Amino acid sequence: xxxxxxxxxxxxxxxxxxxxxxxxxxxxxxxxxxxxxxxxxxxxxxxxxxxxxxxxxxxxxxxxxxxxxxxxxxxxxxxxxxxxxxxxxxxxxxxxxxxxxxxxxxxxxxxxxxxxxxxxxxxxxxxxxxxxxxxxxxxxxxxxxxxxxxxxxxxxxxxxxxxxxxxxxxxxxxxxxxxxxxxxxxxxxxxxxxxxxx
Amino acid sequence: xxxxxxxxxxxxxxxxxxxxxxxxxxxxxxxxxxxxxxxxxxxxxxxxxxxxxxxxxxxxxxxxxxxxxxxxxxxxxxxxxxxxxxxxxxxxxxxxxxxxxxxxxxxxxxxxxxxxxxxxxxxxxxxxxxxxxxxxxxxxxxxxxxxxxxxxxxxxxxxxxxxxxxxxxxxxxxxxxxxxxxxxxxxxxxxxxxxxxx
DNA sequence: CGTCTATTTGAATGTACTCAAAAGCGGTGG
DNA sequence: CCACCGCTTTTGAGTACATTCAAATAGACG
Lengths: 198, 198
Known about the structure:
homodimer; about 200 residues; alpha+beta; Jelly Rolls; 2 domains; four-stranded antiparallel sheet; DNA-binding
């Protein structure tokens, strides 16, 4: 029996885009999930910890970032509704994480741990395909980002960001956008003034 | 019957790291491959073309790059022996490629086209897992690169590159290394002089 | 050997950063 | 509900890292 209007709707829809599950498989999959609320400014993960789960965002906004030797934060990715987030290397290898993940808004995630994910792969091999497709898309997006970081000036990067993620700009403090784009908040502020004057 | 000392040894070894195939599956997989030699400076792919194959490098060195509006080349990835290379987005969506792929050395690749890959997924679903693992690793490597591009100065990026890929530095012209690291060849030359003086 | 491309070197320039201070904004408690 | 506190954004001046342009040198390939 399909659940309707539950916290699971979004994730099932997410999965439905790539593979088709029968009701038993849905039931089984859901039984492997745990939900967790992360309050604004709280951490889902910190460097040194082992990332125990892959996390699907039902509501809210997370950021994955590192802090360099000068204490400056650099954002590796944002995650909002319908995205999967985690420190993949730490998760797979059970080694200490290198990234922080914290919440920019109160955030609800659905979590699956490694043991359950392995079980899922074993019992419902279709999920191998599902996660292959998810990662493929993430890989392509990242490759685009690398290419743009190499090809574009700070101004072009900012304009592309706004064009590509208009909803992000409204939700996320400018400082965080700068940390994602690879420039200082001060410089981003100057850019925006200059662009506004056009 | 397993083939030995053939062009297929390397790719079977590559696959063997992640999944186990029985002889029939090996046979079938190999039947789906075509080999192709790309001479130095020749293209495997150009923007606008559709990327028809995923490519496993048996021998040689490829680069995937874009050319910006000023005609400057930016390298998204290098590929050497034992790596998979292609324009994934173009391959999956059958849309015009955005990258060039060309050979820095005479290069031998084993190719699988989309139709055959789909057939492979269907007949030997283990390959869903295999390519999931391959992409996962590529994703993690890319994420590291993004993080380093955000966190490091040009000098640190160069030193990390040399440390991580010592074999690349010997094979690849400095100009190409600069195009990968996101700096001008002139600046890389200055860096190296400065570092040598230490 | 000659041609073409890559690398080195130097000088001038520009993009983005640092430091410092003021202004704006949001949350919290009195 | 207002006042205050802390954090973010803005603004300006000086600086540094990396680029551009130009020319000389070195190296690779036919």
